[in-house]
Amino acid sequence: MFSGSMVAIVTPMTADGGLDWPAWDRLLDFHIREGTDGIVVAGTTGESPALSGEEIEELTRRAVARCHGKLKVIVGAGTHATASTVARARTLSGLGVDALMLVTPYYNKPPQEGLYRHFMAAADVSAVPIILYNVPGRTAVDLLPSTVARLARNPQIVAIKEATGSVQRARETLSACPPEFTLLSGDDATAIDLLSVGARGVISVSANVAPRRMHEACEAALAGDLARARAIDAGLQLLHRDLFVESSPIPVKWAVARMGLIGNAIRLPLVELSTAHQDIVLRAMQAAGITFEECAA
Question: Quick check: is 107 catalytic?
Fold first, then answer.
């Protein structure tokens, strides 16, 4: 159901801090045109902690209206608290999306049993499938394969975005879960490695900048042509690395703005990419073959 290159899409903003709706439409059209297999609205890269519930709902409605039948639409509904996650899951799952993505509760560091109950509570109210999201580098909590296996018994919980970047973790999770359960990479630099051991795709930061190439790399890997997948990915490795030269999504928003798709605006407490790092990101974009004229067309 969920495979290929899915972009953790940035949220375009205006200089006064509002959401830039014309730029949102432009971004969605760009990904449809460039072959992206799905978008994740209001993920970490979309600055979900800085978005209100109402803003997430409107971003989602507009994405569904523009992308329906063209690519998958997934929306981030996870928060640090079960009650608010359940409320968002109930609301957002009714907006025509293909799935919800639920990050592990951040900051409060729940134990594995707490994680299990949290996700089960959200699954109970969701009208669409659930994709779990494990990113311990951001949340300070790690969703272990044994807990994922327990959750995977619920038919509503169909996939996990695993952002540890560990091939061994991917193998452990796939081994513990039913064969129909989907593993998605949440780490661009190791995505092809994870696809080589059974992952079905990636939820990508780099796909904001190089969507066609990310799609082609995943397509090749899923077809069993790992040599071609790795050759494409080799040209993207600087991008995978340097889009994290500062806290994401600071560098990727600067890059997408440089492509002429959005303005260079971001919400506090994040700030614009420092001048010292702009040449680094620009060189990574050039190494990935980005030509700015074609992006803004």
Answer: no
